[in-house]
Every structure is written in C-alpha cells, then in structure tokens.
Design a protein that fits this description.
The structure is a single chain. The protein is mainly alpha-helical. It contains 10 helices and 3 strands. The chain has a 3-stranded parallel β-sheet, with helices on both faces. Helix 4 links the parallel strand 2 and strand 3. Helix 2 runs parallel beside helix 3 and helix 4 packs across helix 6. The longest helix is centred in the C-terminal third of the chain and has 18 residues. The radius of gyration is 17 Å and the shape is globular. It starts with a helix and ends with a helix.
Length: 185
C-alpha cells in the first residue's frame, strides 16, 4: 500500500540472494491476478483490518496453494488487526516499526517453513482469547467482515457486491451486529 515501504522492501528483496522478487503491487486485484498466474513461495502482504481484501487474498491463496507461505505486515498493531492475522492463519507477522533486519529475519524464517510472530502479537491474541467480551467472541467472522467494510465507508450495496452476497443479507448482518453491540454495553 505505501509506496515508500513497498519500494524499500523490493530493494531489500532484490539485494538478498536468498529471494527473488516476482512482482509488487498496491492493488489487491492485481496481486490476486499475479499470484494466480505465477504462484510465489512467499507472499509479504501489508494488512489492515479496515481493508478486508488483503485477508480475502490470503484466504484465496491458502485455499488454492498448499505450500504458499504468508508473512503479514500490519499497518498498525491494534487488537482488531492482530485478531484478523491470527484468524487468517498466516505464517508470520512483523510490524513496520521493526528495523529492516527483523523483516529480513522474518522473511527467511517463514520462507524456510518456520513461523515468526513477535511477543506483542502473542500477548494481544492471548488477551483477546481470554476476554469473554472481545469483539471476536461477540461478532461472527462474517459480521466482522461486514464491519470492516462498513468502517471503510462502503455502502450496504457495495459490500454485498464485494462479498457476493445479497443486499438483504448485508442489512441483516448489520442489524444483528447492532443488536449484539447494543447488548454488549
């Protein structure tokens, strides 16, 4: 998403003999097209809970390719994003706040078949799992997905088209979320 970060990452990959840069893009649709045409061994993907398309791409790639490895780079380390990363079952996570050497280490670990998650990630996930009122326990996966799109400013009609579900279904999910959230407070 961010040109500066993407450019720096591309440079690091091109200078490291252990990796070969197949492509870089800021578009989720273009990334999907490229990955399906030429499946990579490792995908380094910027993620944000407000942009569900990255998580949709991760799900698609994991469904289509058994051996693809995914390293998530969250835009911010908030609980909603960490929960989404945990649910996506990616192989690693590294914050943009970390030095480039940490990102290189994470890429190497994930590409070699290991996992790479910082202690802060594990602590956030542990707290969410322990909290009976955590959003991930109140809202279903689909409701969370709808919420992400609503938070992104999409209309119910746009959400329905993006998720390939009916407009009435989106409105029902939104109604259920409001009831649940209203009861949670």
């Amino acid at each position: 998403r961010q040109t500066l970060f993407r450019g720096a990452l591309a440079k690091v990959i091109s200078l490291d003999v252990r990796f070969r840069l197949l492509a870089e893009t800021e578009s989720g649709d273009k990334a999907r097209e490229l990955c399906l045409a030429c499946p990579p061994d490792l995908v380094v993907i910027e993620v944000d809970w407000q942009r569900a398309e990255e998580f949709e791409l991760i799900r698609l790639l994991q469904k289509r390719f058994d051996d693809i490895r995914v390293l998530a780079v969250p835009e911010r380390a908030d609980a909603m994003t960490m929960n989404r990363i945990d649910e996506a079952a990616v192989h690693g996570c590294v914050s943009k706040e970390e030095p480039m050497e940490i990102l290189e280490e994470a890429m190497t670990e994930v590409a070699s078949g290991a996992t790479y998650f910082p202690a802060a990630f594990h602590e956030t996930v542990r707290r969410l799992r322990a909290d009976p009122n955590a959003f991930s326990k109140i809202l279903t996966f689909r409701e969370q997905e709808i919420l992400w799109h609503v938070a992104s400013g999409l209309t119910s009609r746009s959400i329905a088209a993006r998720l390939n579900i009916g407009l009435r279904s989106v409105e029902t999910y939104r109604y259920r979320m409001m009831k649940k959230i209203g009861r949670a407070h």
